[in-house]
Amino acid sequence: MYKYILWDIDGTVLDFHAAERNAIKTLFEKFNMGECTEEMLRMYSEINAKYWQMLEKGEMSKPEILIGRFREFFENIGADTSLCEDFNKAYQLALGDTIEFVENAKETLLSQKEKYTIAAVTNGTRVAQDKKLRASGLDEIFDAIFISENVGYEKPNKEFFDYVFESLNIKDKSEAIIIGDSLTGDIKGGYMAGIDTCWYNPDYKPNTLDIPITYEIDNVGKFTENLINSHK
To answer: Using CA of residue 45, residue 49, residue 50, residue 51, what is the dihedral sign?
Structure first.
């Protein structure tokens, strides 16, 4: 029986792509960079996802990926790369200006709050996440919030999860589960930490890591008592 549910934020509870899209378009205007086309948005989204995966694989540090993604993006579109650091700082705040919940996410969290200890576990930057959590009201919904910059380690590192387990006083790992959209961060991290996992996979991506996954869902609202009980 689960007692602790660990929730990823971006792409699982909050619609990260909506926030990303609006932030980039807004900052193109602010930095006088001309029109931000749909092709540019797709390009940036792909570059950004690639860099975060490198972080989760331990191939780059967070400061390196935050600036590196914009440097590559700006080089590709012929923009001034000297703007990267200022653009990134503004971007962290702009991400919190768009709050859209993933379908059924808020309702699911509220339904779980009375039965479980629910905690946010995120690799997002402290600046961006603090603003998003406050603006969305998630800071009042979650029982605990763990941001990697505060913890000192990123998902999927075992040290990140050890910190969470100690902070929540989780002694029996069978009582904990993580739900997230990132195979390399959330699911691999949960697997290596020895807890059950639920992969939110609305795009039906293949399990390229070939690791066991306890549950796989295409809608956050499916993570219910019925799903949990059916797995027993």
So the answer is: positive
Q: What are the beta bridge partners of residue 118? A: 5
- Tokens found for residue 201: 């996979």
Residues of the chain with pLDDT under 70: 230-232
pLDDT for 224 equals 81
Instruction: Give the span between the Cα atoms of 198 and 13, in whole angstroms.
Output: 13
Measured in degrees and rounded to the nearest 5, phi and psi for residue 158 equal -60, -35
Contact predicate 198/215, CB 8 Å: yes
| Catalytic (active site) residue 143 | no
Rounded to 5°, angle at Cα 198 from 177 and 54: 100
| Chain-centre distance for alpha carbon 72 | 22
pLDDT of residue 231: 61
Please give the domain boundaries of the chain with CATH numbers for all domains.
4-15+101-231 (3.40.50.1000), 16-97 (1.10.150.240)
User: Is the model's pTM score more than 0.85?
Assistant: yes
* Residue of 8, 10, 181, 196 marked catalytic: 8
CA distance 13 to 11: 6
Tokens at 113, concatenated: 């709050």
Runs of H (alpha helix) within the chain: 16-30, 38-56, 62-77, 84-94, 105-113, 126-136, 138-141, 148-151, 158-168, 188-193, 225-231
**What CA–CA distance (Å, rounded) separates 135 from 140?**
10
